[in-house]
Amino acid sequence: MPAAKVLAFLVALLFPLHALAGANRDRGQDEVGPGPDEGPSYFGMVRDAAGKPIDDARVTATSRDGLAMVTRSDATGAYKLPGFNKRHNPDEVKISCAKPGYRQYRVFRHPSPRGGPVRAVETECRLQKS
Amino acid sequence: MATGCSVAAAQTITLRYAQAASAHKSIYSLPIALAEREGLFRREGLDFRVVIPIPGGADLMIAALHDDTADLAHVATPFLVRAALAGSDAVAIAAEFNDPIYSLVARPEIARMADLKGKVVGMADPDGSIAYSMRKLLALHGMSEKDLRLRTIGGTPARLGCLKRGECAAVPLGQPQDLLAQSEGYRLLGASNDAVPAYLYTVTAARRSWAAANQDAVVRYVRALAASFATIRDPAKRGAVVNTIVEMTGVEPAVAERVLELYAGKNVLPRRGEIDLQGLAQVIAFMGETGQLKDPLPAPQRFVDLRYLQDAGIRPK
Q1: Which chain A residues are within 8 Å of B51, Cβ to Cβ?
Q2: CA distance B190 to A40
Q3: What is the pTM of this model?
Q4: Chain B positions in Cβ-Cβ contact with residue A38 (cut-off 8 Å)
Q5: Structural domains of chain A sorted by starting position, each given as residue range(s) with its CATH number in brackets
Q6: Do B60 and A26 touch (CB under 8 A)?
Q7: Are B59 and A17 inside 8 Å of each other by CB?
Q8: Which residues of A are less than 8 Å from B59 in CB distance?
Q9: B101 to chain A, closest Cα gap in Å
């Protein structure tokens, strides 16, 4: 399928389903909300070499055992992912980013505040034109 | 078909499998979680990776196949049917859950179905599989939704909360919450599969084009999934299955045992991942009944590709 046709299909597919999602996100398949065993969330920005935000980049958080969560950066370059189960060590969760026409060249994890449990992990991902 | 030795010698293939976050923590991920835990994907030479799209309810799993987030996806059949009719080339390549059990659980003072008349019942989305099966269950008892005051509540945990707060007289619950509620004195009025004996709830889907170009990987996946279903039925592996349910859902082992007892002898899980076309026809009929599809209803064969099951030596049901 040509790229334009694929894009048109995705827009047609996603738009009405997003509208439904507001009513019941997991319609047709039962939902289980985040539990008390959830570890820290992951958030940050995707930027280019000049520091300009990059939207619609795919951001992946991968745990040591290979489980991955994937999201897209928003119009401001920001992303947010929920936590893995607490049994996953957040220090072993890798953040990566990708976008067609770019390659990842730097991932910088901001140090977490000292003292108290880590509730969120901030990581900046940099892409440059390939 | 490749033998175990030749598979071991072959190059490892990476497979990305999209699953909704909610499904990942639920009983519906049992076949996949068990296959991972028991090394069944590794045995087939697969580097199997679960990918959870965020945001990503069940409604976005097919999209994950199209935007290259994943190669395979765990999807509830109504979403697959809808996406295929909208132009997607995604098809079911194996079954994961056939006929799920949703228990209609009531407060202790409700002794029978007729006692629900005029009372608030927390119900799932009216166009979804759960509400559909509950309508059928009510009809089995000579009742309809008009006899009840319905409140739409998404998700078993939220519905259980409504029941416990006393705001709902009854709610449909999945496993293990239905068993937990009954152990606390709530009453079981009926189960969805009393009324809907044939259904195809969730499947593994792939794009036809991708699967055709990656036939070897898909067949290996189907073989691993089939081995997982065989493991679930193997009495010698009971401990591993129970532990998997405990890790997934956080329940006590005794409750996990009861879940397996509940599934025993019922059409909840496929035997080896075979696709029940009659069950898929039931899904399509339900989508027609609820106005999601117009006549003439499509044939279930349109939404499946059985070649990978056949190549894995699995006969159709």
Answers
A1: 60, 68-70
A2: 40
A3: 0.85
A4: none
A5: 38-111+119-130 (2.60.40.10)
A6: no
A7: yes
A8: 17-18, 20-21, 25-28
A9: 12
Across chain B, where does the E strand assignment appear?
A: 13-18, 46-53, 72-76, 90-97, 103-106, 120-123, 149-152, 170-173, 187-191, 202-207
What domains are there in chain B, each with its CATH number?
A: 4-99+199-311 (3.40.190.10), 103-195 (3.40.190.10)
Assembly ipTM = 0.78
What residue of B is the nearest CA neighbor of A8? Answer: B87
Query: What does the radius of gyration of chain B's CA atoms come to, in whole angstroms?
Result: 20
Residue A15 in this model has a pLDDT that exceeds 70 = no
Arithmetic mean of pLDDT, B222-246: 97
- B269 vs B315, higher pLDDT: B269
> pLDDT band for position A117 (50/70/90)?
confident
Q: Which two tokens stand for residue B71?
A: 């190669």
What is the rounded average pLDDT of the residues B257-282? 94
**Rounded Cα distance, B107 and A31, in Å:** 22
Is pLDDT above 90 for A13?
Answer: no
Q: Going by C-beta distance under 8 Å and a sequence separation of 6 or more, which residues neighbour residue A125?
A: A44, A45, A46, A47, A57, A59, A95, A96, A97, A104, A106, A107
| Kind of pairing between the strands at A120-129 and A102-109 | antiparallel
Question: To the nearest whole number, what is the mean pLDDT of chain B?
Answer: 92
What whole-number distance in Å separates Cα of residue B166 and Cα of residue B31? 35
d(CA A56, CA B117): 50
pLDDT in tens, A27-40: 444 544 445 677 89
CA–CA separation, B72 vs B70, rounded Å? 6
Inter-chain CB proximity A30 and B22 less than 8 Å = yes
Asked if B69 and A58 come within 8 Å (Cβ–Cβ), the reply is yes
d(CA B173, CA B179): 9
Our CA-based measurement puts residue B22 at a distance from the nearest CA of chain A, in whole angstroms, of 5
Q: How confident is the model at residue A111 (pLDDT cuts 50, 70, 90)?
A: confident
3-class state of residue B281 by DSSP: helix
For residue B30, pLDDT over 50 is answered with yes
* CA nearest to B222, candidates B245, B206, B242: B206
Q: What is the mean pLDDT of residues B305-310?
A: 98
- C-alpha B234, offset from chain centre: 21
A2 inside 8 A of chain B by CB: no
With cut-offs at 50, 70 and 90, classify the pLDDT of residue B15.
very high
* Backbone phi, psi, residue B257, to 5°: -60, -40
Angle at the Cα of B7 from the Cα atoms of B204 and B312, rounded to 5 degrees: 40
Task: Estimate to the nearest angstrom the gap between the alpha carbon of B151 and the chain centroid.
Answer: 24
